[in-house]
Amino acid sequence: MSDADASGDTRQQDFRTLLRSLPVWDTELPHFDPATAPADPLPLFQQWLSEAAAAGSPEPHTMTLATADATGSPSVRTLMLHDADERGWHFATHRTSRKGRELAARPEAALGFYWPAVGRQVRVRGTVTAAGAEESRADLAKRSTGALAAALVGRQSEVLSSYEELARASDAAWERARREPDAPVGSWTLYVLEAHEVEFFQGDARRRHVRLNYRRSPSAESGWTTELLWP
User: Fold this and answer.
1) How far is CA 83 from CA 17, 92, 159, in A?
2) 151: closest CA among 112, 185, 191, 117?
3) What is the Cα 68 distance to its own chain's centre?
4) How far is CA 198 from CA 25, 108, 150, 228, in A?
5) Phi and psi torsions of 86, nearest 5°
């Protein structure tokens, strides 16, 4: 075996050792009684996010967004939740970005939230609708100068020739964002995911995890049905 192969084997073993040594839920976790859950998943989601924030979970409004292209090939990324209300879960991006193009081709998505401080996660699946230009502009107007500057840079997911090119475009966008706090970004689009299924997972140190799944009934009048899932 060459020295390079031996070094590679050692690195791999060190990595596996690290993975097995990392603590999981080394704090007391809250109890969740599914019998007390509301009939609608939205109030429970809002409660859990608030409790995760209070428990110190960093950036509890971050989430993973999974989409698929026209062929069904999936992709996933992390972004911010902008709102969650009776319409659904709100997020935004450029409609010209990879996720924007995938949502145009296949308007379905899944969201994932994970809050390790409380051992909880929430999974959301449903159909996605793009909001109109006025609502999308209003969404961007509520965000920070940095968020506007990033939106003004645009070209999300395109190939970048060099970091220097990004630096120049970013500096120019920051100056414009400060000068024009209401600068329009035509590609910026607010999306709303209308959930068909929402699962709440409460971790347990003994691995007796509680999984409560909400499924939207076929008729709007029937609301939601709930079921417990094996962990």
Assistant:
1) 40, 10, 30
2) 185
3) 15
4) 23, 14, 31, 12
5) -65, -25
User: Which secondary structure element, helix H or strand E, spans residue 135, and what is its range?
Assistant: helix 133-141
Q: Which residues of 108-146 are buried (b: 16+ CB within 10 A; e: fewer)?
A: ebbbbbbbbbbbbbbbbbbebebbeeeebbebbeeeeee
Asked if 190 contacts 129 with a C-beta cutoff of 8 angstroms, the reply is: no
The end-to-end CA distance of the chain, in Å, is 43
How many CA atoms lie less than 13 Å away from 204 in the CB half-sphere?
A: 12
Q: Sign (positive/negative) of CA torsion 126, 130, 134, 136?
A: positive
Tokens 């709303």 sit on residue: 192
Q: pLDDT tens across 115-153, in order?
A: 999 999 999 999 999 999 999 999 988 888 888 898 998
pLDDT digits (tens, 9 = 90+) for 218-229: 765 669 999 999
Contact 200, 120 (CB under 8 A): yes
**Could you say which DSSP state residue 207 is in?**
S
Total Cβ atoms within 10 A of residue 96: 17
Token pair, residue 187, equals: 């590609």
Residue 138 CA to residue 92 CA, distance in Å, equals 11
pTM of the shown model? 0.90
d(CA 10, CA 6): 6
Report the amino acid identity of residue 192.
V
